[in-house]
Amino acid sequence: MTDATLVLNAGSSSLKFALYPNEDGSPSPILHGKIAGIGNAPQFSARDAKGNTLPPDASMPLKPCAGHDELIPQLLDWLQSHQSGLTITAAGHRVVHGGRNHATPVRINQALLAELDLLVPLAPLHQPHNLAAIRAVAAVIPELPQVACFDTSFHRTQERLAQLIPLPRKMTEAGIIRYGFHGLSYDYIASTLPMHLGERAQGRVIVAHLGNGASLCAMNKRRSVATSMGFTALGGLMMGRRCGSIDPGVLLYLMDNQGMTTRDLEHLLYHESGLLGVSGVSNDMAVLQASDAPEAREAIELFCYRTAGELTSLATANGGLDAIVFTAGIGENCALVRSLICERLGWLGVELDPDANIRNATHISSTASKIEVLVIPTDEESVIARATYRLSSACT
Ligand code: AMP
């Protein structure tokens, strides 16, 4: 009988899952998969450790329009039937927002859930789904230990100035501060830096997590010093559909002169802006790269222009720059974006090796580059698995 930890990453339209063996170190998943199309026509896919496709079973097909509360019991049934000889001892969840109090993962109880409910307005796209998944697991297996791993935790090492927003002090005291996100990804990358950079891992590194959501994190001694996202996952870099930081006067103008409500603005800023809004073609970088439309090229150029500018600002916050790491869907796969960003950083002494860059090699800077540039695939699930195993076994 093998004991295993279930990892769940519940988003608005997808549920990613993975099963990890309960082992110390960095175990590989026994299986991993995804239910995509949630809220519409959910589709199930899963693979074992060797990459073989695992079939759905009698508890499938998944109900159309089913939410996490209905799909998670089906997933748990599937896991039981496909993994006989395996016991799930704990479930770990990606939870986007942990507020200012949680600098580490925590065991979930009713009081914590009530606290995390209060943070839903700060992460309306993600937090409700993260919490729905926790409640759905508890409804099926109430005795199963569950652990919340927060995307905000990694940034709680930042000095106060990096977390302040220049609004009246009473608003800071009420929690309107820069929390930062993508912390599980940054945590994973930080753990791999010594392997790739040796002693330079302890230096000034900026990690560019460039996916559908995008942010930068400046690290010193592998701890977060500053990050581009702030109060919500809307700030900082331009993203697939999100605008990133904009002049707040634009919002006042749209409300006063175009009659937009807060709901209209929410839709505009979270769903209609970014790469999609600027290109009018797609939010997907691979689609934009393949497009002949000049607007698609302009969207890519703007994405890179703004990322390079923000990166320079974070290097200042960190007192210099020794290495840049690209990660997530765009960062790991899009040589064009990496080269456009690094060209703009040429004045800092950044220079790429074009062949290595095209190959998505790990080390992509030239031998003449003053700053090392790397591509490291991220792995948020393994961070959740390790923390969940550690916390759940500590309490048994
Ligand atoms: P993520 O949110 O990390 O899954 O990243 C999704 C983004 O990565 C989308 O914009 C994809 O188009 C982009 N992406 C993935 N693979 C490629 C590729 N080969 N070339 C360009 N963009 C890619």
Automatic annotation (TrEMBL):
GO terms for cellular component: cytosol. This is Acetate kinase. It catalyses: acetate + ATP = acetyl phosphate + ADP. It is found in: Cytoplasm. Gene3D superfamilies: 3.30.420.40. The keyword Membrane does not apply. The gene is pduW. GO terms for biological process: acetate metabolic process; acetyl-CoA biosynthetic process. Substrate binds at R94. The lineage of its organism: Bacteria, Pseudomonadati, Pseudomonadota, Gammaproteobacteria, Chromatiales. Homodimer. InterPro entries: Ac/propionate_kinase, Aliphatic_acid_kin_short-chain, Aliphatic_acid_kinase_CS, ATPase_NBD. Its main location: cytoplasm. The record marks H182, R242 as: Transition state stabilizer. The active site is at D151 (proton donor/acceptor). Belongs to the acetokinase family. GO terms for molecular function: acetate kinase activity; ATP binding; magnesium ion binding. Mg(2+) binds at N9, E380. It comes from the Bacteria. ATP binds at K16, H209, L210, G211, N212, G213, G329, I330, G331, E332, N333. Mg(2+). Can also accept Mn(2+). Pfam families: Acetate_kinase. Catalyzes the formation of acetyl phosphate from acetate and ATP. Can also catalyze the reverse reaction. Keywords: ATP-binding, Cytoplasm, Kinase, Magnesium, Metal-binding, Nucleotide-binding, Transferase. Its cofactor is Mg(2+); Mn(2+). Pathway: Metabolic intermediate biosynthesis; acetyl-CoA biosynthesis; acetyl-CoA from acetate: step 1/2. It is an enzyme of class 2 (transferase).
